[in-house]
Amino acid sequence: MAVEPEMTYPSLRQGLWAIFKRDLVIAFRQRSDLVNSLFFFIMVITLFPLGVGPEPEILSRIGPGVLWIAALLSTLLSVDSLFRQDYEDGSLEILLLSPQPLFIIVLGKIMAHWCITAVPLILVSPLLGVMLFLDAETIGVLIVTLLLGTPVLSMISAIGAALTVGLRKGGVLIAVIALPLYVPVLIFGTSAVEAASMSLVFSGQLAYLAALAIFSITLAPFAIAAGLRISVSG
Amino acid sequence: MFETIKLYYHKFGTPKYFYDLTSKMLPWLIGFTVVLLVPGVILGLGFAPMDEEQGHSYRIMFIHVPAASVAMSAYVMMALAGAIGLIWKMKMAEIVAKCCAPIGASFALLCLLTGSIWGKPTWGTWWVWDARLTSMLVLFFLFMGVIALNNAFESAQSAAKATALLSIVGVVNLPIIKYSVEWWNTLHQTASIKVTEGASMPAEMLTPLLMCIFGFYFLFSVLVVVASRAEVLEREQRSKWVKQLVMVE
After folding, report:
1. Does the pLDDT of residue A15 top 90, yes or no?
2. Residue in chain A nearest B137 by alpha carbon
3. How far is A173 from chain B, CA to nearest CA, in Å?
């Protein structure tokens, strides 16, 4: 009598990696979407000198806040597509039924999304920092705050995206849901950069940002997974 | 003891019993509201001693502070009711959570309006980016987010689940938001007069304030109960007991 071979599932790490790779591949096949949120970020920042005037004193004063708010808005804008395509073609349901725990899948998707949307934004931010008359050290701190802060933004907005994926109108609703939750990240991010620009100690703000990042990366995937289950079953 | 609690928990969780029980409770809740709020407001606005620094303008505190307290508690209650609805699939908890949102938002708005009216004579402007006012504004936005999400769904069931999840996420974030805003405020020093609080307050001020706070909580409970009863009737309109109720009345 032949013994039936036991079904083996890919490990958690393999599952995470597979989802991560899949989303990156899909994103790179639609390159025009990739560039859009980056250009949105650049354009929003260009609007500020036009709106408040090109004086270096004003721009270097509001620069950190402007960069952070632009980063926050472009995260919001791009997150609507995070689950929507998978929801519409039905692959989200397959992912929900897969043997891997849903929070691992969610984590992989958000990691890919962060690499696609946040990393280009961080890479281009030194250039925009120079255009807003921030000095070199301030720009260095800005990059560190963005590296720590954008994962939190992705996690929070993904909660909004998960809850609204089943609805026809996502965009503005995600903003209304997620923006109030962005407040702590914005406060710590901008104040670290401002402290650096006044050559004050900024390690405390960075520690808070890192704490927020760890807190959201560990807990938000559970909320996002629950949100997806609600959206798909409803 | 435990059995009675369990019994009442299940009774409150069933729309019909909730309706019956609240019919008996409502006059008492309204009574407590009137007994606390009417003398509290009269004492506070008319008879409490004048504040040395702020003159008569501080008296808006008798509305402002209770509204702030109730608004924050309303959010926590909405999240708790939402969690109960999500975990034990209790219909009544979903209804109560849904009714908390607009009422809590109204109290937050009342707090913001009274705060800005108080700010005009005290700070000289209608709005100051004070830590408490700012975090109350964020709380108001959180309420609006919950309401917007609730309205976006067609089916009441998925709306209840989604808003419950959102309010749980919000309630986890609420202390982080509050302390980060306070920290932000100390960083950007603005000229602000702190309202005298707690121990430094004479009894003639404290008594009406406490009466107003408890009165506001009873007012909130009355509003939530009335709104939930209306929601129960609407959701259960096809059931026998609602039809009977409407026929008799």
Report:
1. no
2. A180
3. 7
